[in-house]
Design brief:
This protein is an alpha+beta fold. Helix content is 19%, strand content 26%. The chain has 13 helices and 34 strands. The strands form eight sheets. The protein has an eight-stranded parallel barrel with strand order 4-5-6-7-8-9-10-11, surrounded by four helices. A six-stranded antiparallel beta sheet has the order 16-27-17-23-20-21, with no helix packed on it. Helix 6 packs parallel to helix 7. It starts with 12 loop residues before the first helix and ends in a 10-residue tail after the last strand.
């Protein structure tokens, strides 16, 4: 697509004479005057990042209204491919996945929308938004012109893009720009044929009625030449630590003309288990934003509302060590994980008011929260019991271990079982390919834990014919750079240097249907006292709201619990790991709770390591009004 100067000239006489020109909506680029043109008039967008897939649908309007109240005229969202096609050929655009409803809602609030459909998005989301079933083909080169990869991308975009074309700005919708790929200059493949293919694919479905653009960070790990094409509009990203004047001069080296854009102005940062919670100073951010906007640059504030990595959707960082991302994606954003305006919100709002008119009326308040109090839990089932009752846990037989993806396991846990044939003794059990964390059992007795950052071996005492079980947790596919990250046990397992064979492999996905079956066994609960059995499910009843009122948001406080997965009814809240920190609470949206006064809401924990249930006094969780995100230990 060639770059043209969009200037109203006499060639439009015919359109003007028919009256059609003045009724036509357009969002274009005037390269000569370095501005965007909205309906022919100069326009500076001030946008905020929000990911519909990290927020329950019931709250989309609340978050968008608060963003508009801050003075934003635009919002920006990624599209997470794996959120809509978790299994190949099986698409989901319902309920919290209804992207068309989200786009319509943006339009109804008279906001504009920048769409970032990838196919790769990063976003600290599992595998950067790519579906994990791509990893079944171990020879596939992701984010390249590899035929198998392009075939999968094409099939997906042939479904997605036609759904979105009616919502382009030129067609009466809010979408003013669509990003092609994401920060591609940071990836090793540097395949311009791939980028050209994507551009052609996007243009085939969207025509020339929308701006196609790229974004790359400025820094040592990025090559903007690799990340863009001369036929695509180029943008960059940087945070408040970088002088906007210096950053935009760098952009001009790659794009001499056109509006200047920071697609990701970082007001917070990524958070990982075991590291301090990241905070950024509101005053420093506001000063940098003021300077950026004063230079007539358009900007997207990343994130304006972070949301949550519900379920198993968090990604992971690779920085010499494997570091899974928190369940919370609060991001220290202007709107908190629960959508509450923060000090940073009002600080940025004051800056934005200098460049964009504030809408009338007050800022919508934080939604009320409720502390439901302590809930005492009882053991329901062990993981071994669950394997017997879940139809989805049908085992696969293999001579050697195979990856989770090779048995169509999208997320969750995988259990590898074999019977030891060696004579009784003691030796090192070597599992060099653990992805990502393994709990070792002999005859269902815990022996220890291995993770991918460790040595990959453990000493055990065993007898001939003992049953070895390896419970492997997929803690999130790496979302940046090292994307070829299959899960489970990816290499042979040895005991006393002998390769173990004849494996029975159980997928344990814990999808909503699985959790519903487990809940139906709640009449089998036992006593909370006695030795704590690892890898077990615990259940408790959540009190109803007083006076039959509708449920409110709350936070699940997991003090004294170790590591596992939490569910309210069948809704997967996400991973908890308070022993590691810094996140101590999980956000519980009211939509996870049933408001029927005759319905008893349940909390279910799949505790992998050790429950505090040796005594009933300690076997509880607590629902509180405020989050605790910054502690690295209890």
């Amino acid at each position: 697509m060639l770059r043209f100067n969009f200037v109203i000239i006499s060639l439009n006489v015919f359109a003007c004479s028919s009256g059609a020109f003045f009724n036509q909506r357009s969002f274009t680029i005037d390269y000569e005057n370095n501005v965007f043109l909205k309906d022919g008039k100069p326009f500076q967008y001030i946008s905020g990042g929000i990911h519909y897939f990290r927020i329950p649908r019931v709250y989309w309007k609340d978050r968008l209204m608060k963003m508009k109240a801050a003075g934003l005229n635009t919002v920006q969202t990624y599209v997470a491919w794996n959120f809509h096609e978790p299994r190949q050929g099986q698409y989901n655009f319902n309920n919290d996945s209804d992207i068309e409803f989200f786009v319509k809602l943006v339009n109804s609030l008279e906001l504009l929308l920048i769409l970032r459909p990838g196919p790769y998005i990063c976003a600290e989301w599992d595998l950067g938004g790519l579906p994990s079933w791509l990893l079944r083909n171990s020879s596939m080169v992701l984010r390249s012109s590899d035929h198998a990869y392009l075939s999968a991308v094409t099939s997906w975009m042939n479904v997605l893009l036609p759904k979105l074309k009616p919502y382009l700005y030129a067609n009466g919708g809010p979408i003013i720009a669509v990003q092609v790929e994401n920060e591609y200059g940071s990836y090793y493949t540097c395949d311009h044929n791939y980028m050209r293919y994507l551009q052609d694919l996007f243009q085939k479905h969207l025509s020339d009625d929308v701006i196609l653009f790229t974004v790359d960070p400025i820094g040592l790990k990025s090559d903007i030449n690799c990340g863009t094409l001369s036929s695509l509009f180029t943008t960059i990203d940087f945070g408040p630590e970088t002088d906007p004047e210096v950053a935009l001069k760098t952009l001009r080296k790659y794009q001499p003309n056109g509006p200047m854009v920071n697609t990701e102005f970082y007001v917070g940062w990524i958070d990982n288990w075991g590291l301090p919670f990241q905070r950024k100073n509101a005053t420093i951010i506001s000063t940098a934003l003021d300077k950026l906007l004063s230079m007539n640059a358009s900007v997207n504030i990343y994130m304006f509302e972070g949301g949550s990595n519900f379920g198993f959707n968090n990604g992971a960082t690779w920085a010499l060590l494997y570091l899974p991302v928190l369940t919370s994606y609060d991001y220290d954003a202007p709107l908190s994980e629960a959508g509450d305006p923060t000090e940073k919100y009002f600080s940025l709002r004051n800056v934005i008011s200098k460049y964009s008119p504030q809408p009338p009326g007050p800022v919508p308040p934080a939604l009320p929260k409720h502390g439901y109090g302590k809930v005492y839990l009882k053991k329901l089932l062990s993981v071994w019991d669950v394997l017997k009752v879940l139809p989805s846990c049908k085992p696969i037989i293999s001579e050697y271990p195979v990856t989770a993806e090779q048995i169509s396991q999208v997320h969750g846990f995988t259990i590898y079982r074999t019977q030891l044939r060696q004579k009784s003794g003691s030796s090192l059990l070597n599992i060099p390919g653990v992805r990502d964390r393994a709990t070792i059992f002999l005859n269902q007795e815990k022996q220890g834990v291995l993770d991918r950052n460790g040595l990959g071996s453990i000493g055990i005492e065993f007898k001939e014919n003992d049953i070895l079980d390896i419970l492997v947790e997929n803690q999130g596919h790496i979302n940046f750079m090292l994307l070829n990250d299959p899960k489970g046990v990816i290499q042979n397992v040895t005991l006393h240097d002998a390769v173990l064979t004849n494996w029975t492999i159980f997928p344990l996905s814990l999808d909503p249907d699985d959790v519903a079956i487990i809940l139906n066994k709640s009449d089998q609960v036992g006593s909370p006292s006695g030795p704590s059995e690892p890898a077990s499910f615990y259940v408790g009843d959540i009190p109803a709201m007083p006076d039959g009122k509708a449920p409110l948001d709350t936070f699940l406080y997991l003090k004294n619990w170790s590591k596992g997965q939490a569910f309210v009814n069948t809704f997967n809240l996400g991973r908890y790991w308070p022993a590691k920190g810094p996140q101590q609470t999980l956000y519980v949206p009211s939509s996870a709770l049933n408001g029927n006064p005759d319905f008893i809401n349940k909390i279910i924990l799949f505790e992998i390591d050790e429950a505090p249930c040796f005594n009933s006094e300690y076997c509880y969780v607590e629902f509180i009004k405020n989050p605790i995100l910054g502690k690295t230990k209890n």
